[in-house]
Amino acid sequence: MDLGLILNKEELTREEIIFLLSLTGNEEINALFGRADEVRRQFSGDEVHLRGIIDFSNFCEQNCIYCGLREENFSITRYRMTPEEIIETAKIISNEGIYTVVLQSGEDSFYDTDMISYIIYSIKQNTNLAVTLSIGERRFDEYKAWKIAGADRYLLKHETSDEKHYFAYHNRQRLYDRINHLRYLKQIGYQVASGSLIGLPMQSIENIADDILLCKELDVDMAAFGPFIPVPFTPYKSHKQGSVELTLKTIAAARLVLKDVHIPATTALDSIDKEGREKGLKCGANVVMPDFTPHPYREKYIIYPGKRGIAEDPLSAHKMIKRRIEAIGRKISASRGDTLKKNTPSI
Ligand code: SAM
Ligand code: SF4
After folding, report:
1. Interval between CA 31 and ligand 1 midpoint (Å)
2. Res 243 pLDDT > 60
3. Does the C-beta of 304 come closer than 6 Å to ligand 1?
4. CA–centroid distance, residue 34 to ligand 2 (Å)
5. Per-residue confidence band for 121, with pLDDT thresholds at 50, 70 and 90
6. 4/13 Cα distance (integer angstroms)
7. Cα separation, 13 vs 2, whole angstroms
8. Under a CB-based contact definition with an 8 Å cutoff, are residues 89 and 294 in contact?
Protein backbone atom coordinates (compact mmCIF):
# COMPACT_ATOMS: atom_id res chain seq x y z
CA MET A 1 0.00 0.00 0.00
CA ASP A 2 1.12 3.58 -0.64
CA LEU A 3 1.41 5.43 2.69
CA GLY A 4 1.46 8.90 1.09
CA LEU A 5 -1.79 8.19 -0.74
CA ILE A 6 -3.53 6.72 2.32
CA LEU A 7 -2.60 9.64 4.56
CA ASN A 8 -4.35 12.03 2.21
CA LYS A 9 -7.48 10.02 1.50
CA GLU A 10 -10.86 11.37 2.61
CA GLU A 11 -12.19 7.96 3.77
CA LEU A 12 -10.09 5.03 4.98
CA THR A 13 -11.02 1.37 4.56
CA ARG A 14 -10.59 -1.19 7.38
CA GLU A 15 -7.53 -2.61 5.55
CA GLU A 16 -5.97 0.86 5.32
CA ILE A 17 -6.50 1.48 9.05
CA ILE A 18 -4.88 -1.89 9.81
CA PHE A 19 -1.99 -0.90 7.54
CA LEU A 20 -1.49 2.36 9.49
CA LEU A 21 -1.64 0.58 12.85
CA SER A 22 0.95 -1.94 11.60
CA LEU A 23 3.58 0.62 10.54
CA THR A 24 7.00 -0.08 12.07
CA GLY A 25 9.56 2.25 10.43
CA ASN A 26 10.27 5.52 12.30
CA GLU A 27 9.93 7.57 9.15
CA GLU A 28 6.53 6.07 8.30
CA ILE A 29 5.24 6.40 11.85
CA ASN A 30 6.36 10.03 11.97
CA ALA A 31 4.57 10.68 8.67
CA LEU A 32 1.36 9.23 10.21
CA PHE A 33 1.75 11.37 13.35
CA GLY A 34 2.51 14.49 11.31
CA ARG A 35 -0.57 14.05 9.11
CA ALA A 36 -2.79 13.37 12.16
CA ASP A 37 -1.45 16.57 13.74
CA GLU A 38 -2.39 18.51 10.57
CA VAL A 39 -5.91 17.05 10.51
CA ARG A 40 -6.32 17.87 14.23
CA ARG A 41 -5.32 21.49 13.53
CA GLN A 42 -7.72 21.68 10.58
CA PHE A 43 -10.72 20.44 12.59
CA SER A 44 -10.06 21.76 16.10
CA GLY A 45 -7.26 24.32 15.89
CA ASP A 46 -4.38 24.60 18.36
CA GLU A 47 -6.55 24.86 21.46
CA VAL A 48 -6.47 22.13 24.08
CA HIS A 49 -9.72 21.63 25.97
CA LEU A 50 -9.38 20.81 29.65
CA ARG A 51 -11.98 18.63 31.35
CA GLY A 52 -11.71 18.62 35.16
CA ILE A 53 -12.41 15.18 36.61
CA ILE A 54 -13.96 14.41 40.00
CA ASP A 55 -13.64 10.72 40.84
CA PHE A 56 -16.44 10.83 43.40
CA SER A 57 -16.82 7.14 44.29
CA ASN A 58 -14.64 4.07 43.84
CA PHE A 59 -17.40 1.63 44.77
CA CYS A 60 -18.33 -0.52 41.79
CA GLU A 61 -20.98 -3.16 41.21
CA GLN A 62 -19.29 -4.36 38.02
CA ASN A 63 -16.35 -6.69 37.79
CA CYS A 64 -14.46 -5.67 34.61
CA ILE A 65 -11.55 -8.07 34.55
CA TYR A 66 -8.87 -5.41 33.90
CA CYS A 67 -9.94 -2.73 36.39
CA GLY A 68 -8.65 -1.96 39.88
CA LEU A 69 -12.11 -0.84 41.01
CA ARG A 70 -13.81 -4.16 40.12
CA GLU A 71 -16.14 -5.46 42.79
CA GLU A 72 -13.96 -8.46 43.59
CA ASN A 73 -10.86 -6.38 44.28
CA PHE A 74 -10.94 -6.48 48.08
CA SER A 75 -7.50 -4.89 48.41
CA ILE A 76 -8.60 -1.27 47.92
CA THR A 77 -10.21 1.10 50.43
CA ARG A 78 -13.56 2.28 49.14
CA TYR A 79 -14.91 5.83 49.53
CA ARG A 80 -17.85 7.99 48.51
CA MET A 81 -17.85 11.79 48.31
CA THR A 82 -20.96 13.59 49.54
CA PRO A 83 -23.03 15.63 47.06
CA GLU A 84 -21.82 18.80 48.83
CA GLU A 85 -18.15 17.78 48.46
CA ILE A 86 -18.74 17.08 44.75
CA ILE A 87 -20.48 20.42 44.16
CA GLU A 88 -17.74 22.32 46.05
CA THR A 89 -15.04 20.59 43.96
CA ALA A 90 -16.91 21.53 40.78
CA LYS A 91 -16.82 25.19 41.90
CA ILE A 92 -13.03 24.92 42.34
CA ILE A 93 -12.75 23.53 38.79
CA SER A 94 -14.82 26.43 37.46
CA ASN A 95 -12.72 28.97 39.40
CA GLU A 96 -9.62 27.47 37.78
CA GLY A 97 -10.89 28.62 34.38
CA ILE A 98 -12.02 25.18 33.23
CA TYR A 99 -15.33 24.80 31.40
CA THR A 100 -16.16 21.11 31.79
CA VAL A 101 -16.50 18.88 34.81
CA VAL A 102 -16.43 15.10 34.41
CA LEU A 103 -18.25 13.30 37.21
CA GLN A 104 -16.69 9.85 37.27
CA SER A 105 -17.19 6.78 39.47
CA GLY A 106 -17.56 3.02 39.49
CA GLU A 107 -21.06 1.77 38.80
CA ASP A 108 -22.45 2.75 42.18
CA SER A 109 -26.23 2.68 42.62
CA PHE A 110 -25.84 4.32 46.06
CA TYR A 111 -26.07 7.52 44.00
CA ASP A 112 -29.65 7.13 42.83
CA THR A 113 -31.47 9.04 40.10
CA ASP A 114 -32.40 11.96 42.34
CA MET A 115 -28.99 12.31 43.97
CA ILE A 116 -27.21 12.54 40.62
CA SER A 117 -29.91 14.94 39.35
CA TYR A 118 -29.40 17.13 42.43
CA ILE A 119 -25.62 17.20 41.91
CA ILE A 120 -25.96 18.09 38.21
CA TYR A 121 -28.62 20.75 38.85
CA SER A 122 -26.61 22.36 41.68
CA ILE A 123 -23.44 22.48 39.55
CA LYS A 124 -25.38 24.08 36.68
CA GLN A 125 -26.93 26.64 39.07
CA ASN A 126 -23.58 27.60 40.59
CA THR A 127 -21.14 27.49 37.65
CA ASN A 128 -20.91 27.75 33.85
CA LEU A 129 -19.55 24.22 33.60
CA ALA A 130 -20.58 21.71 30.97
CA VAL A 131 -21.31 18.48 32.85
CA THR A 132 -20.06 15.11 31.61
CA LEU A 133 -21.19 11.92 33.33
CA SER A 134 -18.89 8.88 33.40
CA ILE A 135 -20.68 6.58 35.80
CA GLY A 136 -21.15 3.43 33.73
CA GLU A 137 -24.32 1.82 32.42
CA ARG A 138 -27.50 3.02 34.11
CA ARG A 139 -31.21 2.82 33.31
CA PHE A 140 -32.56 4.68 30.27
CA ASP A 141 -35.01 6.68 32.41
CA GLU A 142 -32.04 7.85 34.51
CA TYR A 143 -30.15 9.08 31.43
CA LYS A 144 -33.26 11.08 30.55
CA ALA A 145 -33.71 12.52 34.05
CA TRP A 146 -30.06 13.64 34.13
CA LYS A 147 -30.35 15.25 30.71
CA ILE A 148 -33.33 17.23 32.02
CA ALA A 149 -31.33 18.14 35.15
CA GLY A 150 -28.71 19.71 32.84
CA ALA A 151 -26.11 17.04 31.95
CA ASP A 152 -24.43 17.74 28.62
CA ARG A 153 -22.24 14.75 27.82
CA TYR A 154 -21.80 11.06 28.62
CA LEU A 155 -18.53 9.15 28.55
CA LEU A 156 -18.98 5.38 28.21
CA LYS A 157 -16.21 3.51 26.45
CA HIS A 158 -17.16 0.37 24.53
CA GLU A 159 -13.70 -0.92 25.64
CA THR A 160 -13.62 -3.48 22.77
CA SER A 161 -15.74 -3.92 19.67
CA ASP A 162 -15.25 -7.72 19.65
CA GLU A 163 -18.31 -9.39 21.14
CA LYS A 164 -16.46 -12.45 22.46
CA HIS A 165 -13.66 -10.40 24.01
CA TYR A 166 -16.27 -8.05 25.52
CA PHE A 167 -17.92 -10.98 27.28
CA ALA A 168 -14.55 -12.35 28.43
CA TYR A 169 -13.63 -8.96 29.95
CA HIS A 170 -17.09 -8.18 31.40
CA ASN A 171 -18.94 -11.40 32.10
CA ARG A 172 -21.93 -9.56 33.59
CA GLN A 173 -22.38 -7.33 30.53
CA ARG A 174 -22.90 -7.59 26.76
CA LEU A 175 -21.48 -5.50 23.93
CA TYR A 176 -24.95 -5.35 22.37
CA ASP A 177 -26.30 -3.55 25.46
CA ARG A 178 -23.38 -1.15 25.64
CA ILE A 179 -23.94 -0.14 22.01
CA ASN A 180 -27.66 0.31 22.67
CA HIS A 181 -26.91 2.57 25.63
CA LEU A 182 -24.53 4.67 23.52
CA ARG A 183 -27.13 4.98 20.75
CA TYR A 184 -29.85 5.97 23.22
CA LEU A 185 -27.63 8.59 24.89
CA LYS A 186 -26.90 10.15 21.51
CA GLN A 187 -30.56 10.02 20.51
CA ILE A 188 -31.73 11.96 23.58
CA GLY A 189 -29.20 14.73 22.97
CA TYR A 190 -26.06 13.89 24.94
CA GLN A 191 -22.68 14.56 23.35
CA VAL A 192 -21.29 11.07 23.56
CA ALA A 193 -17.77 9.77 24.12
CA SER A 194 -16.66 6.19 23.61
CA GLY A 195 -13.41 4.38 22.86
CA SER A 196 -11.35 1.39 23.85
CA LEU A 197 -8.38 0.08 25.78
CA ILE A 198 -5.18 -0.65 23.87
CA GLY A 199 -3.18 -3.78 24.70
CA LEU A 200 -5.78 -5.92 26.45
CA PRO A 201 -5.04 -9.66 26.34
CA MET A 202 -6.33 -11.34 23.12
CA GLN A 203 -6.59 -8.00 21.28
CA SER A 204 -5.35 -7.82 17.68
CA ILE A 205 -4.57 -4.89 15.40
CA GLU A 206 -7.75 -5.81 13.49
CA ASN A 207 -9.75 -5.39 16.73
CA ILE A 208 -8.33 -1.89 17.18
CA ALA A 209 -9.28 -0.94 13.60
CA ASP A 210 -12.81 -2.15 14.40
CA ASP A 211 -12.81 -0.07 17.62
CA ILE A 212 -12.09 3.05 15.58
CA LEU A 213 -14.74 2.09 13.02
CA LEU A 214 -17.32 1.51 15.78
CA CYS A 215 -16.67 5.07 17.03
CA LYS A 216 -17.37 6.23 13.47
CA GLU A 217 -20.56 4.20 13.21
CA LEU A 218 -21.80 5.55 16.54
CA ASP A 219 -20.94 9.09 15.39
CA VAL A 220 -19.27 9.82 18.75
CA ASP A 221 -18.30 13.36 19.73
CA MET A 222 -15.19 12.20 21.60
CA ALA A 223 -13.10 9.05 21.11
CA ALA A 224 -10.73 7.95 23.89
CA PHE A 225 -7.98 5.36 23.47
CA GLY A 226 -5.72 4.63 26.43
CA PRO A 227 -3.24 1.85 27.20
CA PHE A 228 -4.24 -1.08 29.40
CA ILE A 229 -2.16 -1.08 32.60
CA PRO A 230 -2.05 -4.34 34.62
CA VAL A 231 -3.40 -4.11 38.16
CA PRO A 232 -2.36 -6.18 41.21
CA PHE A 233 -5.09 -8.41 42.68
CA THR A 234 -6.93 -8.64 39.32
CA PRO A 235 -6.97 -11.59 36.89
CA TYR A 236 -4.81 -9.73 34.37
CA LYS A 237 -2.17 -8.70 36.92
CA SER A 238 0.61 -10.54 35.06
CA HIS A 239 -0.24 -9.46 31.51
CA LYS A 240 1.97 -6.92 29.85
CA GLN A 241 0.82 -3.32 29.60
CA GLY A 242 -0.38 -1.70 26.39
CA SER A 243 2.34 -0.16 24.24
CA VAL A 244 2.85 3.61 24.06
CA GLU A 245 3.63 3.40 20.35
CA LEU A 246 0.49 1.43 19.49
CA THR A 247 -1.64 3.80 21.58
CA LEU A 248 -0.18 6.78 19.70
CA LYS A 249 -0.73 5.07 16.33
CA THR A 250 -4.34 4.43 17.37
CA ILE A 251 -4.86 8.09 18.31
CA ALA A 252 -3.37 9.18 14.98
CA ALA A 253 -5.40 6.69 12.91
CA ALA A 254 -8.55 7.66 14.83
CA ARG A 255 -7.93 11.33 14.00
CA LEU A 256 -7.61 10.49 10.29
CA VAL A 257 -10.78 8.39 10.29
CA LEU A 258 -13.02 10.39 12.64
CA LYS A 259 -11.73 13.92 11.94
CA ASP A 260 -14.26 16.21 13.74
CA VAL A 261 -14.09 14.57 17.16
CA HIS A 262 -12.37 15.36 20.42
CA ILE A 263 -9.57 12.95 21.34
CA PRO A 264 -7.92 12.99 24.77
CA ALA A 265 -4.26 12.45 25.57
CA THR A 266 -5.16 10.20 28.49
CA THR A 267 -3.78 10.08 32.02
CA ALA A 268 -3.08 6.36 31.52
CA LEU A 269 -0.77 7.23 28.60
CA ASP A 270 0.94 9.87 30.74
CA SER A 271 1.32 7.35 33.55
CA ILE A 272 3.38 4.91 31.47
CA ASP A 273 5.43 7.52 29.58
CA LYS A 274 6.71 10.69 31.21
CA GLU A 275 5.93 12.64 28.03
CA GLY A 276 2.74 10.73 27.29
CA ARG A 277 0.48 13.78 27.17
CA GLU A 278 2.80 15.74 24.90
CA LYS A 279 3.17 12.75 22.57
CA GLY A 280 -0.60 12.27 22.41
CA LEU A 281 -1.22 15.96 21.74
CA LYS A 282 1.34 15.90 18.91
CA CYS A 283 -0.29 13.02 17.04
CA GLY A 284 -3.98 13.95 16.95
CA ALA A 285 -5.23 14.58 20.50
CA ASN A 286 -6.80 17.90 21.57
CA VAL A 287 -8.17 17.21 25.07
CA VAL A 288 -6.58 16.73 28.51
CA MET A 289 -8.47 15.69 31.63
CA PRO A 290 -6.81 16.95 34.84
CA ASP A 291 -7.82 15.17 38.04
CA PHE A 292 -9.39 17.48 40.65
CA THR A 293 -10.42 14.74 43.10
CA PRO A 294 -9.45 16.12 46.53
CA HIS A 295 -7.32 14.34 49.11
CA PRO A 296 -7.87 11.92 50.84
CA TYR A 297 -10.00 10.37 48.06
CA ARG A 298 -7.59 11.11 45.22
CA GLU A 299 -5.04 8.47 46.19
CA LYS A 300 -7.78 5.85 46.66
CA TYR A 301 -9.16 5.95 43.10
CA ILE A 302 -6.76 3.28 41.91
CA ILE A 303 -8.01 2.11 38.50
CA TYR A 304 -4.40 1.11 37.80
CA PRO A 305 -1.11 1.57 39.69
CA GLY A 306 1.28 4.48 39.07
CA LYS A 307 -1.41 7.02 38.10
CA ARG A 308 0.35 10.30 37.32
CA GLY A 309 -0.24 13.25 39.66
CA ILE A 310 -2.11 11.25 42.29
CA ALA A 311 0.20 12.25 45.17
CA GLU A 312 0.15 15.93 44.26
CA ASP A 313 -2.20 18.66 45.31
CA PRO A 314 -4.90 18.99 42.54
CA LEU A 315 -4.19 22.69 41.92
CA SER A 316 -0.41 22.19 41.57
CA ALA A 317 -0.98 19.20 39.30
CA HIS A 318 -3.29 21.34 37.14
CA LYS A 319 -0.70 24.14 36.96
CA MET A 320 1.92 21.63 35.82
CA ILE A 321 -0.38 20.22 33.12
CA LYS A 322 -1.04 23.74 31.76
CA ARG A 323 2.70 24.46 31.70
CA ARG A 324 3.39 21.28 29.77
CA ILE A 325 0.67 22.06 27.20
CA GLU A 326 1.95 25.60 26.66
CA ALA A 327 5.55 24.37 26.44
CA ILE A 328 4.69 22.51 23.22
CA GLY A 329 3.15 25.64 21.70
CA ARG A 330 -0.51 24.79 22.30
CA LYS A 331 -3.13 27.11 23.82
CA ILE A 332 -5.48 26.33 26.70
CA SER A 333 -9.01 26.79 25.40
CA ALA A 334 -11.26 29.39 26.98
CA SER A 335 -14.45 27.73 25.76
CA ARG A 336 -16.51 24.69 26.72
CA GLY A 337 -15.17 22.70 23.81
CA ASP A 338 -18.53 21.28 22.79
CA THR A 339 -18.90 18.85 19.93
CA LEU A 340 -16.92 19.70 16.79
CA LYS A 341 -19.70 18.29 14.63
CA LYS A 342 -21.67 20.78 12.60
CA ASN A 343 -25.46 20.90 12.99
CA THR A 344 -25.37 19.34 16.46
CA PRO A 345 -26.92 21.36 19.25
CA SER A 346 -24.28 22.18 21.87
CA ILE A 347 -26.57 21.81 24.87
N1 SAM B 1 -17.16 3.01 35.75
C2 SAM B 1 -17.19 3.88 34.64
C3 SAM B 1 -16.99 3.11 33.36
O4 SAM B 1 -16.53 1.98 33.39
O5 SAM B 1 -17.32 3.68 32.31
C6 SAM B 1 -16.17 5.00 34.74
C7 SAM B 1 -14.94 4.70 35.50
S8 SAM B 1 -13.84 3.53 34.71
C9 SAM B 1 -12.61 3.31 35.92
C10 SAM B 1 -13.06 4.59 33.48
C11 SAM B 1 -12.21 3.88 32.47
O12 SAM B 1 -11.07 3.32 33.09
C13 SAM B 1 -12.82 2.71 31.73
O14 SAM B 1 -13.58 3.14 30.64
C15 SAM B 1 -11.60 1.89 31.32
O16 SAM B 1 -11.30 2.02 29.94
C17 SAM B 1 -10.46 2.49 32.14
N18 SAM B 1 -9.68 1.44 32.81
C19 SAM B 1 -10.14 0.49 33.63
N20 SAM B 1 -9.14 -0.34 34.00
C21 SAM B 1 -8.02 0.09 33.37
C22 SAM B 1 -6.66 -0.37 33.34
N23 SAM B 1 -6.28 -1.45 34.02
N24 SAM B 1 -5.78 0.31 32.58
C25 SAM B 1 -6.17 1.41 31.89
N26 SAM B 1 -7.42 1.90 31.90
C27 SAM B 1 -8.35 1.24 32.63
FE1 SF4 C 1 -16.33 -0.56 37.45
FE2 SF4 C 1 -15.85 1.10 35.41
FE3 SF4 C 1 -13.88 -0.32 36.55
FE4 SF4 C 1 -15.70 -1.58 35.11
S5 SF4 C 1 -14.23 -0.05 34.35
S6 SF4 C 1 -14.94 -2.23 37.11
S7 SF4 C 1 -17.54 -0.39 35.56
S8 SF4 C 1 -15.07 1.27 37.48
Report:
1. 31
2. yes
3. yes
4. 34
5. very high
6. 15
7. 13
8. yes
**Position 308, amino acid:** R
Q: Looking at this protein, which amino acid is placed at residue 76?
A: I
Note whether residue 343 is domain-resident: no
Atom 1 (ligand 1): residue with closest C-alpha?
Answer: 106
Q: Are 215 and 264 in contact (CB under 8 A)?
A: no
70 and 60 Cβ atoms separated by less than 8 Å: yes
Amino acid letter, 166: Y
Alpha-carbon distance of 98 to 93, in angstroms, equals 6
Counting the structural domains of the chain, the total is 1
Q: 64: Cβ below 6 Å to ligand 2?
A: yes
Find residue 224's DSSP bridge partners.
Answer: 195
**Model pTM greater than 0.90?**
yes
Residue 4's CB: how many other CB atoms inside 10 A? Answer: 8
Among all bound ligands, the one having the nearest atom to the CA of 226 is 1
Paired residues of 132 in beta bridges: 102, 153
Q: Say yes or no: CB of residue 107 within 6 Å of ligand 2.
A: yes
182 lines ligand 1 (CB under 6 A): no
Ligand 2 center to 38 CA (angstroms) = 34
Q: Is 136 in the pocket of ligand 1 (CB under 6 A)?
A: yes
In a domain, 299, yes or no: yes
Report the distance separating Cα 135 and Cα 156, nearest Å.
8
Determine the structural domain holding residue 257 and report its residue range.
3-330
Tell me the pLDDT tens digit for each residue of 311-335. 999 999 999 999 999 999 999 999 9
> Stretch 325-346: mean pLDDT, rounded?
89
* Residue 228 CB–ligand 1 contact under 6 Å: yes
Report helix, strand and coil shares of the chain as percent, to nearest 5.
Answer: 40, 15, 45
**Do the domain assignments include residue 194?**
yes
Q: Is the pLDDT confidence value at 345 over 90? A: no
Q: What is the CATH number of the domain that holds 237?
A: 3.20.20.70
User: Ligand 2: does its nearest atom lie under 6 Å from the Cβ of 157?
Assistant: no
Cα of 110 from ligand 2 centre, angstroms: 15
Residue 97 placed within a domain: yes
